[in-house]
């Protein structure tokens, strides 16, 4: 996390540096001593916090305007020598989040504000990292699901297809999203709901569709208190033919 400080006073920089020394491994402070240095930092660097010590309202307007253009998600904090309602209201309207009066408590108040921002930033990064992990896990699962060689689809208790892999959708020359939401019987002449026992045990049966014999394994499961049935289909036409051929051969052999 980076803090950009704009002040002409060394004591301000020194105080902040000492206050956040314990965060040195994950917290950097850049000190812009004049307006030129500040604009240079704003132009070429990305900062989490912009801390400005300035009572010049016209200059402050310009600084905030430039900061908001270059640093979209930066927390802008002002430290002012004298409390002035007009200046404070103007700064807040410009988008400044915190205005701190430089009194005897200013260092403590500033530390609280910055620590709060640091915690918020860490929580945000943690959430983003978690979202990346979740998204990656989802993509991994979908990739595995789509590459299962069996024709695989899942229906809910109402018989609607809630998920299918590409192997299954390719049977109908469709994309999975064109299959999801349809009734299973709209695609396949199977009396599916009568075939399945809703006790969680596997069911196995064979069906012939358009001259192709499929072995079908179906298993019910629950997710979020909802019942579903997953089907795995495999083309066993050649296997059936071979079995029949062997059976007939053995039959004639035994007769002969």
Give the helices and strands, then pairings.
Elements: E1 2-6, H1 10-19, E2 28-32, H2 35-44, E3 49-53, H3 57-70, E4 75-80, H4 85-94, E5 98-101, H5 106-146, E6 151-156, E7 161-164, H6 166-170, H7 176-179, H8 184-187, H9 192-195, E8 203-209, E9 212-223, E10 226-235, H10 237-255
Parallel strand pairs: 1-2, 1-3, 3-4, 4-5
Antiparallel strand pairs: 6-7, 6-10, 8-9, 9-10
Helix pairs in contact: 3-4
What would you note in describing this structure?
It is a single chain. With 256 residues, the chain is an alpha/beta fold. The chain has two domains: 2-137, Response regulator (Rossmann fold), CATH 3.40.50; 148-244, PAS domain (Beta-Lactamase), CATH 3.30.450. The protein is 47% helix and 25% strand. It contains ten helices and ten strands. It has helices spanning 10-19, 35-44, 57-70, 85-94, 106-146, 166-170, 176-179, 184-187, 192-195, 237-255, and strands at 2-6, 28-32, 49-53, 75-80, 98-101, 151-156, 161-164, 203-209, 212-223, 226-235. The strands form two sheets. It has a five-stranded parallel beta sheet, with helices on both faces. The chain has a five-stranded antiparallel beta sheet with strand order 7-6-10-9-8. Helix 1 (10-19) links the parallel strand 1 (2-6) and strand 2. Helix 3 (57-70) packs parallel to helix 4. The longest helix is centred in the middle third of the chain and has 41 residues, at 106-146. It starts with a strand and ends with a helix.
